[in-house]
Inverse folding.
């Protein structure tokens, strides 16, 4: 078990917590993280690029000129790909870029990403993250005290004050525990876990 300090929003130590090594202290394998991030980004691609083939371009019903006697190369349709305004050969069509990875691989990758932040000293465990009202200035003040200028915050439940106070500040993102993913962990320098989510994470990620 790994032991880390629990702090409050004033960055004062209020206790310690033991973390499951299967989730928080795994060997980090970069190729697994790479595969999972590639999967996430591929799933976000719209894949809606589309060009018209010679069949789909309007027009082309009449032969541009007669077959022989003009001195020009023969031509059968104005929709030919070699003509300006004609169709496109082998152009992109709508497609699905997504691909699947095994559930256990995705679980391992999340554990590895969390472990990487802990090993770097960039994991913060908060006892609670409560805000009296929706105010961006108060949120920024807490982040300054925690020395977290770029952070992913994982909170349990629907914390409206926190999510709305942080949404206009660059470099921060608030996620529920069920939405935690590898890409967002690696995208942010710090990972802030509100204490109640740790038990949920261990239940979700322990094989």
């Amino acid at each position: 078990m790994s032991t880390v300090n629990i702090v409050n929003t004033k960055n004062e130590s209020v206790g310690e917590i033991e973390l499951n090594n299967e989730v928080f202290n795994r060997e980090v394998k970069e190729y697994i993280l790479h595969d999972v991030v590639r999967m996430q980004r591929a799933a976000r691609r719209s894949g809606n690029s589309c060009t018209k083939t010679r069949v789909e371009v309007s027009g082309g019903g009449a032969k541009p000129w007669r077959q022989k006697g003009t001195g020009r190369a023969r031509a059968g349709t104005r929709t030919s790909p070699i003509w300006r305004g004609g169709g496109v050969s082998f152009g992109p069509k709508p497609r699905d870029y997504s691909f699947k990875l095994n559930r256990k691989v995705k679980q391992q990758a999340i554990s590895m990403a969390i472990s990487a932040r802990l090993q770097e000293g960039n994991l913060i465990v908060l006892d609670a993250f409560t805000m009296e009202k929706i105010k961006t200035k108060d949120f920024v003040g807490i982040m300054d005290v925690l020395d977290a200028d770029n952070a992913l915050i994982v909170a349990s439940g629907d914390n409206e004050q926190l999510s709305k106070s942080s949404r206009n500040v660059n470099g921060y993102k608030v996620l529920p525990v069920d939405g935690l993913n590898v890409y967002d962990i690696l995208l942010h320098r710090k990972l802030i876990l509100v204490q109640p989510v740790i038990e949920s994470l261990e239940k979700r990620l322990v094989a």
Observations:
- The first strand starts at residue 2 and ends at 7.
